[in-house]
Specification:
The complex is a heterodimer of chains A (294) and B (238). Chain A is of the alpha/beta class and 294 residues long. Chain A is built from ten helices and 13 strands. In chain A, the strands form three sheets. A six-stranded mixed sheet of chain A has the order 5-6-7-3-8-9, sandwiched between helices. In chain A, strands 11-12-10-13 form a four-stranded antiparallel sheet, with helices on one face. Chain B is built from twelve helices and no strands. Chain B is globular. By secondary structure, chain B is mainly α. The relative contact order of chain B is 0.16. Chain B has one domain. Classes of the chains: A alpha/beta (294), B mainly alpha (238). Chains A and B meet through helix 3 of A and helix 1 and helix 4 of B.
Chain lengths: 294, 238
């Protein structure tokens, strides 16, 4: 993986009237990365994404895609595939006609039949868009984004409305595109997808980055948790176990393995049963939930 | 651009409402006028031609332009097209090319029928200029009106003033001439174009005196495009 920035955002500000949607946002996406832009509702991620795509104009700051202004469609869009959050297809056109139309307009070349096969819409090729289900429309949207294997692909909530088989198929395609060298920018509400697949994550809150980094960098900022209950009576547990309102104990730790080992040793030595014992590393969900509590 | 135009043409022929608005209403109204042209006293051929022209460009071209753009915006098709390498002008040209070509074919067909039935125009060049100027004006006004229109349903309301207005002006100028209230009649949208059609069809006015009548129509084009560039939206209001 090289460090050439495909996307370079520098002190981006976006406003809607008096509302400051994005404040001084700066980040880069490198070639071949899968960069996830996550955030709370109204955090400004869609506005940011649409500015990078060239749909919006920044109030101040600069956005460069492949070193160019993303609004220079003729230069940038042939290298870029966009999966919008909402479909935006004409209901009277068929699936085949829609892919052919949008595909041609990207100025990339591909085989419509191949693309429909990739998203499992071959059987629906002659069906009008109006007659597709929500999941099929998302797959059609994905088809136009990956048409011609672009260098940079924006996936805005790509798996919303998809069944598990379609999700797996979509991610298999994304993996294949990454192997071919494509860079992916993803927004999603399914945090486990970002946790599993993103090289780096930008976590937005109120128009700015709450945190940015790899999953490991983000999760290691919060302690892991060990939860358990004790029979009554029982000796006081070790570590800094805090009793919760339901009577269970909570240990927050940055040394999960060491403290868990210590706790199990204590239980063995005192012949105490650790009931409902649960322990796990910090997940992206926990980082996400911490937004606003910092 | 041609890909967009082809897609639009397919959609026009698959949408019954658009087909009725574009074809049936203007053609039926025009047929009625042509049938009645010699049964109603005082209907000059030039006036009939002006009304026929505006029946098609107002009822067909203008309303379809507004409805099409509002519809494509509402279902995010415009945003989809803007996610490609096509420029804004290519998108608009592609979307409006089919309806414009169909309108021109309709106008030519209807005026040819009128010419065959009742007698042809005196100056074909002036008539062509008037038709083209009217088409461009209604496209410009359609773009501007689309900026004020939230949905295809809303278009039924927003198109009413100019639809009725231009038809009324075409009839007023076409049948009463522009000798009285000349300035007002020429300044209204469609007024000078209608006068030009009357001059082109009926003759009697020197070519050099008729040609300046293009200026007010083109003035409306400039005003409409300037307005559209300020108020036209590519995405629905959020």
């Amino acid at each position: 993986m090289t460090t050439t920035p495909v996307i370079d955002v520098d002190r981006l500000n976006l406003t809607y009237g008096d509302f400051h949607a994005v404040r001084d946002l700066s980040f880069q996406v490198r070639k071949g990365e899968l960069y996830a832009l996550l955030g709370t509702n109204g955090a400004g991620k869609t506005s940011t994404l649409e500015t990078i795509e060239g749909h919006r104009v920044a109030a101040s700051g600069t956005v460069r895609v492949f070193g160019r202004d993303p609004r220079d469609r003729g230069a940038v869009r042939p290298r870029m595939g966009i999966m919008l959050q909402e479909s935006g297809f004409s209901p009277d056109l068929t699936v085949r006609e829609s892919v052919r139309l949008v595909g041609r307009l990207t100025r990339r070349t591909d085989d419509v039949a191949r693309v429909l096969d990739v998203v499992d819409l071959t059987r629906k090729a002659g069906t009008k868009v109006a007659q597709l289900s929500g999941g099929e429309k998302r797959r059609l949207d994905f088809a136009t984004a990956v048409y011609g294997t672009p260098e940079l692909i924006f996936l805005d909530e790509p798996t919303t409305g998809l069944d598990i088989q379609s999700r797996d198929a979509l991610w298999d395609t994304v993996d294949a595109l990454r192997e071919a060298g494509s860079t992916i920018v993803l927004t999603t509400h399914y945090l486990e997808e970002a946790q599993q697949r993103a090289d780096r994550i930008g976590l937005m809150h109120k128009g700015a980055f709450h945190r940015e980094g790899t999953v490991r960098e983000l999760t290691q900022t919060l302690p892991a948790e060990i939860r358990f209950s004790l029979p009554d009576p029982a000796p006081a547990p070790p570590l800094h176990a805090v009793r919760e309102s339901d009577g269970s104990f909570l240990v927050e730790t940055f040394g999960l393995q060491k403290d868990l080992h210590l706790l199990l040793g204590w239980a063995h030595d005192h012949a105490v049963e650790l009931r409902e014992l649960r322990a796990g590393p910090t997940r992206l969900d926990d980082v996400f939930r911490s937004i606003g509590s910092d | 651009m041609l890909s967009i135009a082809l897609g639009e043409l397919i959609q026009i022929f698959r949408n019954r409402l658009v087909l009725v608005t574009m074809f049936v209403l203007p053609v039926a109204s025009s047929a009625g006028y042509i049938y009645l042209h010699d049964t109603v006293p005082g209907l000059g051929l030039g006036g009939v031609a002006a009304v026929l022209l505006f029946l098609v460009v107002a009822m067909g071209l203008y309303t379809t332009t507004v409805t099409t753009l509002a519809s494509r915006r509402q279902n995010l098709f415009l945003k989809r097209l803007r996610s490609t390498a096509a420029s804004d002008s290519e998108i608009l040209t592609g979307l409006l090319l089919p309806v414009t070509v169909i309108t021109l074919v309709q106008v030519v067909a209807i005026l040819v029928v009128l010419a065959v039935v009742a007698g042809g125009p005196t100056n074909l060049f002036l008539l062509t200029a008037a038709v083209l100027a009217s088409v461009v004006m209604m496209l410009g006004l359609g773009l501007a009106t689309a900026g004020l229109t939230n949905s295809p349903e809303h278009a039924q309301v927003t198109t009413m003033p100019l639809l009725i207005g231009t038809l009324a002006v075409a009839g007023w100028v076409g049948f009463s001439g522009a000798e009285d209230m000349t300035l007002l009649k020429r300044a209204l949208p469609g007024g000078s174009a209608s006068e030009l059609v009357v001059n082109a069809w009926d003759g009697g006015v020197p070519f050099a005196d008729s040609l300046p009548l293009l200026a007010p129509t083109l003035g409306w084009v400039v005003a409409a495009v300037a307005l559209a560039s300020r108020i036209f939206r590519w995405e629905p209001r959020r």
